[in-house]
């Protein structure tokens, strides 16, 4: 079987690696200069920067990345973190520990007036999360479309699964209220900080099931990977090549059509490729316009409607810093929260390279990637773009000073990545990142399937179930592989 994969992000690379392993003819076309998409990298002189955050999940035994690399007979080094991150909120500095008991103890110390309610909230959230993990361990497809997918979902049910039903339409906000925490503004803000990074929404709207899973999975294992998560992408790309596949950069597909019963993909220079299947590892906002109208009309109405929905953008700062300005024992991952919303510099996520990680910086230096969510309408004219870029840069530097007070004195190199840069380098429409928010409107049975409804045309990536993050996109790539080979 001949298979074209459009998009060299981790989802497409996962699908391609397994298809190549099974002996299929895989051709992977990536529009940019790097593998990994939003988890890619770029270099400036002697410094290397991960494009986005670099915290790894799913490397624990039984985790999706552990399972993928094990099945491919590959190894991938990742350093487990005892302190997952450090959270800065006002005068509060809170370590976020992987160990559950230490985390509960820290929460009780930080929010003593709500200690009992917080413990009961976490115990319920973790119980929900554990049941969801059991349910998804066999990697069932949601929403199921075919008989085999329904069968697999039914066979995935566990004795504790019925206990999840009361939470199906609830939000994390409902759980907080149940435990008397709806008025605990500081703790709720802390929870929102965790959810916005993983679920792309806050407790008010986040699905209770998905939110509980996110809060639970932090304690299953969080990891630092030398260099960054782009190493996953490069490992999978090499695996494809080693198993007979072909991978190309700077092949920006402009159209996908069908000719004589076969799929044809055409790039920006008019070069074309033919195959039995096409796998699109693209945001659906970029996927739908690639199809001629007759094919668009065959797509599910939900998919077409959702392709017109705008997602978050990201504003990112990239700093190369002198080691001397970084305080001893600074955590590798940090959040800085203000008392306002979770966007526009009021919530920062900092990813600092480990000392002596020479993949990212030479001795005496470290690199820092800092990101915040932003609404795309702030960037829709050149005048607004230039002015807002300066405003947000200064605001973010002030936030970084909360973690590294002398940061301005140690900057060797400083760059920013606004939505237009994200669009230019990752080819994501308007710089959209992160997939759809995991609200009840968009998650689980309301999410999009990897099936397009058109024979031989597939989707993976952060637009489809189970959503964003390397865990989510890897799972979607595996679903595509399994569907193509009918496993």
How much helix is in the residues?
25-40%
- How much of the sequence is in beta strands? 15-25%
Instruction: Let me know the average pLDDT.
Output: 95
Total of helices: 15
Number of strands: 20
Pfam family, one: Amino_oxidase
Protein name: C-3',4' desaturase CrtD
Organism: Guptibacillus hwajinpoensis
Domain Amine oxidase: 10-478
Short description:
By secondary structure, the chain is an alpha/beta fold. The chain is 34% helix and 21% strand.
SSE topology sketch:
Blueprint: E1 2-6, H1 10-21, E2 25-29, E3 41-44, E4 47-50, E5 55-57, H2 64-71, E6 79-80, E7 83-89, E8 92-97, H3 100-110, H4 115-136, H5 147-156, H6 172-178, H7 185-199, H8 208-217, E9 222-224, H9 230-242, E10 246-248, E11 253-259, E12 262-267, E13 272-275, E14 277-280, H10 284-287, H11 293-296, H12 301-306, E15 313-322, E16 333-337, E17 347-352, E18 365-374, H13 382-400, E19 411-417, H14 419-426, E20 457-459, H15 469-484
Helix pairs in contact: 1-9, 1-15, 3-4, 4-8, 6-8, 7-8
What would you say this structure looks like, in words?
This is C-3',4' desaturase CrtD. The chain is an alpha/beta fold and about 475 residues long. The longest helix has 22 residues, at about 115-135. Helix 6 (about 170-180) crosses helix 8. The strands form 5 sheets. The chain has a 7-stranded mixed β-sheet, with helices on both faces. It has a 5-stranded parallel β-sheet with strand order 10-2-1-14-20. It starts with a strand and ends with a helix. It has helices at about 10-20, 65-70, 100-110, 115-135, 145-155, 170-180, 185-200, 210-215, 230-240, 285, 295, 300-305, 380-400, 420-425, 470-485; strands at about 1-5, 25-30, 40-45, 45-50, 55, 80, 85-90, 90-95, 220-225, 245-250, 255-260, 260-265, 270-275, 275-280, 315-320, 335, 345-350, 365-375, 410-415, 455-460.
